[in-house]
Amino acid sequence: MKLTFLGTSSGAPSRYRNVSALALQLPQQAGAWLFDCGEGTQHQIMRSALRVSQFDRIFISHMHGDHVFGLPGLLASRSLQAGMSTPLTLFGPPGLQEYIRRTMELTQTRPGYPMEVITVAPGLVWEDDRTQVFCTPVAHRIPAFAYAVVERDHAGHFNVEAAAALGIAPGPIYGRLKKGETVTLEDGRIIDGRTLTGPIRRGRRVVYAGDTTFTRNTVEIARGADVLIHEATYLEEDRALADRASHSTSLMAADAAKQAGVRTLILTHFSTRYEGEGGSRLAELLAEAQSIFPNTMLARDLWSYDVPVFGDEGVRG
Amino acid sequence: MKLTFLGTSSGAPSRYRNVSALALQLPQQAGAWLFDCGEGTQHQIMRSALRVSQFDRIFISHMHGDHVFGLPGLLASRSLQAGMSTPLTLFGPPGLQEYIRRTMELTQTRPGYPMEVITVAPGLVWEDDRTQVFCTPVAHRIPAFAYAVVERDHAGHFNVEAAAALGIAPGPIYGRLKKGETVTLEDGRIIDGRTLTGPIRRGRRVVYAGDTTFTRNTVEIARGADVLIHEATYLEEDRALADRASHSTSLMAADAAKQAGVRTLILTHFSTRYEGEGGSRLAELLAEAQSIFPNTMLARDLWSYDVPVFGDEGVRG
Fold first, then answer.
1. Which chain B residues are within 8 Å of A42, Cβ to Cβ?
2. A275 CB-near residues (< 8 Å, 6+ apart)
3. Are B104 and B165 found together in one domain?
4. Mean pLDDT per segment of 10 residues, for chain B of length 317 residues?
5. In the predicted model, is pLDDT for residue A204 greater than 60?
6. Can you count the helices (H) and strands (E) in chain B?
7. How far from A316 is each of A205, A206, A308, B132, CA to CA, in Å?
8. Which of A132, A160, B168, B270 is most buried, judging by how many CB atoms fall within 10 Å of its CB?
9. If 0-12 CB within 10 Å is exposed, 13-18 middle and 19+ buried, where does residue B87 land?
10. What b/e sequence results for A243-269 when a residue is b if at least 16 CB atoms lie within 10 Å of its CB, and e otherwise?
11. Same domain, A216 and A116
12. Is B113 exposed, middle or buried (0-12, 13-18, 19+ CB in 10 A)?
């Protein structure tokens, strides 16, 4: 699972950061998913190693402009790619469907690919045999959702050499043993599949909390997550601004990460006020979060982060 | 009158050019006008010497996405500027008003300044004591307009020294003489104001033809213009594509400039197909236009062009 931050500014673009968008690539899949799509997201994709044509699922956290104004242009440009016919599915809060429909109608934009807009409700949003997506309401000024992308647990590694050493010939029986079943061989021996497979490999869990103040729902959906991506619009000294706009300070984000027991917290959606002509104050914002949740990082535009597999960190350095 | 090209690509942004937008600054005015507003226009403004807060009038040629998808974000960001309360007026075809209203509603964007959307009809669109704006329908797949910005003619320079030498004391009488009136002095002398003022200075005329194929209406509105900004999406060899999409080839644009007798033609809105990995073919596109209208230039992103005052070119070099 690879994250690429395409926009990390709140409200408006700055000289350093674009408005919200986050790409996710799943292992062994050519497609890519997008979480939120502020204006200029297609431009950011052009500057990254990704391609607009790759995206086949888009998840919208909420309907504020800095999270959706890039959608119509992205949908139109995707249609201009030669031979583009891959279906696109959008998931989001009430209003998304009408926003897309009206905008496309009024600008006579007709995507040359099948497109579906799904209004999400708390719970399971989408799944296939490898991945599930859940959402939960968070606390913002308008309906807003956090999304969890959860890899299903993988069967452990099947020890082919050990099976061969036991004189078990390859065939459908390998599949049963791999699943951990107990199998009786033709010669009467009873083999417990679990003795031939390594431990189950836990799937990863990545949670993207769109705009929100601190809320129990975020803690619940992020419980035990590998990565929590949480907005941190403000420094704690601007707590009043955060409260007024239902945004988070970095301390609030860190508190959510700590209570959820996540492994890594990535902060994003920074107010433009902290990167003015006087230099950046984001180091302070990071330090504030790290004071209660040390494993915190700051997102920056076009930064990619490979989510480590549990237990692999040593290997990957 | 100063033009700044903010986007010169057709359809979709490329690595080299953003989608359509053009800024116009009038002499001795702090505000700025915008013609069309493709996605990422506010980002382009950030890269220029202009500011989002400066724009107080926006003219939209037609409702295709590559000309309007940057509007909602620009309107929202303008609202985030500290203390921004300058009114904004938008002019455009039917559909613009609903596009703005729906988008703002669905994303709960509430500009902190007065905003008005005016649906234009052929003829005079707007005027004050110095400038007039006219529009005319052009020929595209959906309703589309060309805009002409016309400076009113200025009174000639009033020769203060000559008036003083005649013994005329400064006062309201100067104003009357400046207007070319004939005035009777207290001592009985009759003075013809026209003898004290230089020739009338002709105002400039700048025409922006949004997406269009060749049309008589463009020729009419651009007649005698100082600058015609005309789309040239295609090379003549791709005439079939131009015809199919109601766009222009560079020859069609040059033909309009020639028939209208404009002084300068600036081409824009180039298909991304001509700036691929094999290098740019825009020199061919320019040469094609220059073969029938020599004084042609190619627009590029962030290029500014000062429209010369008639007769001043020698002075300005």
1. 12-13, 39
2. A14, A15, A16, A17, A281, A282
3. no
4. 98 96 94 97 97 96 98 95 88 97 95 96 96 96 97 86 89 86 90 87 93 96 97 97 96 98 98 87 96 98 93 44
5. yes
6. 11, 18
7. 18, 19, 8, 66
8. B270
9. exposed
10. eebbbbbbbbbbbbbbbbebbbbbbbb
11. yes
12. middle
Task: Indicate if A66 belongs to the active site.
Answer: yes
- B25 and B124 share a domain? yes
CB contact under 8 A, B77 and A46: no
| Domain closes at, from B146, B174, B196 | B196
Does B237 share its domain with B187?
Answer: no
Residue A312 has pLDDT above 90, yes or no: no
Pick from A38, A63, A107: CB nearest B68: A107
pLDDT category of residue A49 using cuts at 50, 70 and 90: very high
Please count the residue pairs, one from chain A and one from chain B, whose beta carbons lie less than 8 angstroms apart: 114
- The ipTM of this complex is 0.88
Global pTM reads 0.89
The answer to whether residue A95 sits within a structural domain is: yes
Report CB contact under 8 Å: A68, B107.
yes
Residue A46 has, within 13 A of its CA and on its CB side, a CA count of: 16
Distance of CA B102 to the CA centre of its chain: 28
Percent of chain A with pLDDT over 70: 98
- What whole-number distance in Å separates Cα of residue B153 and Cα of residue A61? 54
Identify the CA nearest to A65 among candidates B69, B111, B108, B66.
B108
Please tell me which residue of chain A has the smallest CA distance to B77: A12
Contact call for residues A35 and A22 (beta carbons, < 8 A): yes
Residue type, A230: H
Q: Please count the structural domains in chain B.
A: 2
* Token representation of residue A214: 């601190």
Mean pLDDT of chain A: 93
State the catalytic residue, choosing from A36, A56, A66, A129: A66
Looking at residue B316, its pLDDT comes to 36
How many alpha carbons fall within 13 Å on the CB side of residue B221?
28
| Residue B312, domain member (yes or no) | no
Task: Tell me what the mean pLDDT of segment A253-280 comes to.
Answer: 94
Q: What residue numbers bound the domain in which A221 lies? A: 2-154+201-306
Find the chain A residues whose C-beta atoms sit closer than 8 A to any C-beta of B. Answer: 11-13, 15, 18-19, 38-40, 42-43, 46, 63-66, 68-70, 72-73, 76-77, 80, 95, 98-99, 102-103, 106-109, 141-142
**Closest CA–CA distance from residue B37 to any residue of chain A (Å):** 12
When CB atoms are compared, the residue of A39, A68, A95 closest to B39 is A39
Partner residue facing B40 (CB), from A43, A76, A98: A43
In a domain, A79, yes or no: yes
Cα gap B98→B3, rounded to integer Å: 29
A65/B69 Cβ within 8 A: no
Residue of A15, A19, A77 lying closest to B46 (CB–CB):
A15
Residues in Cβ contact with A132 at an 8 Å cutoff, skipping those fewer than 6 apart: A124, A126, A149, A150, A152
The dihedral through the CA atoms of A228, A232, A237, A238 has a sign that is negative
Q: Would you tell me how many other CB atoms lie within 10 Å of the CB of residue B112?
A: 12
- In chain A, which residues have their Cβ closer than 8 Å to the Cβ of B70? 39
Asked, for residue A317, whether it belongs to a domain, the answer is: no
pLDDT of the residue at A263: 97
Query: Would you call A12 and B80 a contact, using CB atoms and an 8 Å cutoff?
Result: yes
